[in-house]
Amino acid sequence: MIPRRSAIRARAIVADAADIRSNVLFFLGMTILSLLLIAGLSNIAFAADSDSDLGDGGKYGGYGVSSEMRQAMVLVENETFANALPFLQREVTNNPSNANAWNLIGFSSRKLGDYSGSEAAYDKALAINPEHKGALQYKGELYLTLGNLAGAEMLLARLNKICSSRCSEARELNDDIAAYKKAQ
Length: 184
Known about the structure:
Blueprint: H1 4-49, H2 67-77, H3 81-94, H4 99-111, H5 115-128, H6 133-145, H7 149-163, H8 168-183
């Protein structure tokens, strides 16, 4: 037979263990919930901050992209650049710090032969985000169109510092420069 004092002490120990277990489970659950919340917010930030790719579900897609930007991206993908520009202009009017929109204005303007407008838009994108890979690549392509090989090579060097040859923008600009040199 267990003495009365020992029985009370044993029940207290069991009750304390149950409280500790409840607290551990509560904090573990809160930690998991916090990690899931952080992971979700990171995905939103990644989608909103990325700087190239126009494909379905590409880097411009996702959370925080306006209807103007989504419509412009479809038009750019379909190579209807003149139709995309009004949507992009509305986007930068509403959100002048959207480097992705400025980049697409530069791209569309270049494809339409407006080289000075293109360069100005790329410059705005790069003023907002000096490491905008798409703007660096496309401005390099613009320089090649204008015969400015040294300028294109300078932009390739900047891309290589950011992502070396691991990113498609650096590889594509490098290939364009090689093709340009071969054609000379």
